[in-house]
Automatic annotation (TrEMBL), chains A, B:
Stretches that traverse the bilayer: none
Protein's name in the database: Succinyl-diaminopimelate desuccinylase
GO terms of biological process kind: L-arginine biosynthetic process; lysine biosynthetic process via diaminopimelate
Domain of life (superkingdom): Bacteria
Pfam families associated with the record: M20_dimer, Peptidase_M20
Example GO molecular function: acetylornithine deacetylase activity
Peptidase M20 dimerisation domain segment(s): 169-266
Length: 356, 356
């Protein structure tokens, strides 16, 4: 497949449309990364590096501050939502919201801002929608950590053109309830693990998640059974029932505190194994660069409830926030779209702040 | 594969061994059915018919009573338990208990009893261990119903050389608990179907099954969740949780009564769909032929808790019971065996009663 060259001087809506119409499901970002790289290499004010299917383009003006503007190139799988379609002031299509609209804004700024007041590192990366160890930022941090040095990272994830600060942590765990197998014709000889699991599910149903205030932002936690699996055969009392949990915890809790918290909610006597835990990120509204951007935008920061690469930057020592076009609730939906007005607004505001 | 001819004059243990060593998992009974058919056709006192991989052999002596002696030829899949092995007075191997020991007894009697006091119909049939519509008896009843006319059917299913009378019915149902999907980062926007299912599982855990007395026999009922399935993705609040039930009900309840009974136990507000229901069979100890055999054997009948083809014969209007060598609890276990002593005992007792 030949991918058309990207015209970074085109209108931001047309550029978003071109990005949407270049399919780039996770793992298949190659052609889009090639097009992005070629367009950026044509710009003499930028130094361009490529790591896998991620592209990094930097100004080198010797400014006092450096800001990362980042967006992932990949999308979740298509859901009958290609090609892009413009209607009623909205651009519909796979990735329009999450997050090719944000990528288009960043590409436009990369081309337009030849001498910003802050040095800028633009990062367009692969595999954000899949396992963390395939994530392009993870790979760049491992192979070329110097490319991610900055005073602030702005992730252009959909945040309705507002600022979403920090993000909640995620803890995944399996609770295994044991019993004893038996033929259902003699069920009393066994112990039904599915029946025993009622107490775990009831504890989850009864639990009222907390609302934690950090830096004035309310992080609403969650604890959900996302899977229940029991069953040996149609005539066998099951000896095992596995309940998979997904907990979202406020960034003020450490992963260890989150685990202790969840363990206290689950009735004892069952196996509890943490399968994954990633810390959240504190909002960091006291960082100078963060405060400057928030002041400039004149918006009240909101808490980010989902996990984003903001947490990854935080762990790398770079304060970060989400600021991008698109309603985050539309992400991963077949009907996702981005408001044309938000594309223009984000481009204008972020451009003004970077120009200084 | 060439299957060795069966020698029906061989010792019952050697004959059982030969049957075990002729593999016949459900659907692959052909070679064993061929061998059984050939051996029976060599006997001039029997009329032999073949239906699929089932073989029916009858005396036609004009006796006042006709008795069916039946055994299925198929086994569950092998579990490293072939070939047969004789040790400590036990014959081990796939199907030794369920139910090639019983088949061997029936074959020996078919060969030996040239002029029994009761006419006998020997039925060796296929596909008992799988779906009911593949069952050899089902097919014979459909294609050649006259072959199954009788005053009593003796199923040589393992019953520890005792009489197991009647059998419980089986009701399978799916309870579907509904909720609303949501991203786990905003779990409160959804309703977790797995959490809601706690009340169903708790009701099952709290339920104490009844013990129902019929004809002096105690049928101990059961109601088990045999499967629980919920889960959309690791970060999604599930909108559906399906709990599959397997109920065993006393033969004094009709299928409709059994369904009403189970519905009363499950909390309301959830979808309840019966996926399968098969009635049980009353013990029928008041039938003359049944009473005669039970008296002759001098054993106290026990209730059959699992479902067997006794129920199928009952529906065909033929009183039926289980009487065969082997401990029923060993059926379908890798270590199944049959006591050599029980093989001889069953052959002797049943032979004496049929001779009259």
């Amino acid at each position: 497949m030949t991918t058309a060259a990207l015209d970074l001087t085109a209108d931001v809506v047309e550029l978003t449309r071109a990005l949407v119409d270049t399919p780039s499901e996770s793992g298949a970002e190659g052609p889009l990364a090639d097009a992005v790289e070629a367009a950026l290499r044509a710009l003499p004010h930028l130094t361009v590096d490529r790591v896998g299917h991620s592209v990094v383009a930097r100004t080198a003006l010797g400014r006092a501050e450096r800001v990362i503007v980042a967006g992932h190139l990949d999308t979740v799988p298509a859901a009958g939502n290609l090609p892009a379609r413009l209607a009623d002031g909205r651009l519909y299509g796979l990735g329009a919201c999450d997050m090719k609209g944000g990528v288009a804004v960043a590409l436009r700024l990369a081309a337009a801002l030849t001498a910003p007041a802050r040095d800028v590192t633009y990062v367009f990366y692969e595999c954000e929608e899949v396992e963390g160890d395939r994530n392009g930022l993870h790979r760049i941090a491992a192979d070329r950590p110097e490319l991610l040095a900055a005073d602030l990272a702005i992730l252009m994830e959909p945040s309705d053109a507002g600022v979403e600060a920090g993000c909640q942590g995620v803890l995944c765990a399996d609770v295994t309830v044991r019993g004893t197998r038996a033929h259902t014709a003699r069920a009393w000889r066994g112990e039904n693990a599915a029946h025993r699991s009622a107490e775990v599910l009831q504890a989850l149903a009864d639990h009222v998640p907390e609302r934690v205030i950090v830096d004035g932002l309310e992080y609403r936690e969650g604890l959900s059974a996302v899977a229940v699996r029991a069953g040996v055969a149609g005539n066998v009392v099951p000896d095992t029932c596995v309940i998979s949990l997904n907990a979202r915890f406020a960034p003020s809790r450490s992963p260890q505190e989150a685990e202790e918290y969840v363990r206290r909610i689950i009735p004892g006597g069952h196996e509890f194994v943490v399968t994954e835990v990633v810390p959240g990120a504190l909002p960091g509204l006291d960082h100078a660069a963060v405060a400057s951007l928030v002041d400039f935008l004149g918006v009240a920061p909101r808490p980010k409830l989902g996990w984003t690469d903001v947490a990854r930057f935080t762990r790398l020592g770079v304060p970060a926030l989400n600021f991008g076009p698109g309603d985050p609730v539309l992400a991963h939906t077949a009907g996702e779209f981005v408001e044309v007005g938000q594309l223009a607004e984000c481009e204008r505001k972020l451009g003004e702040w970077l120009r200084g």
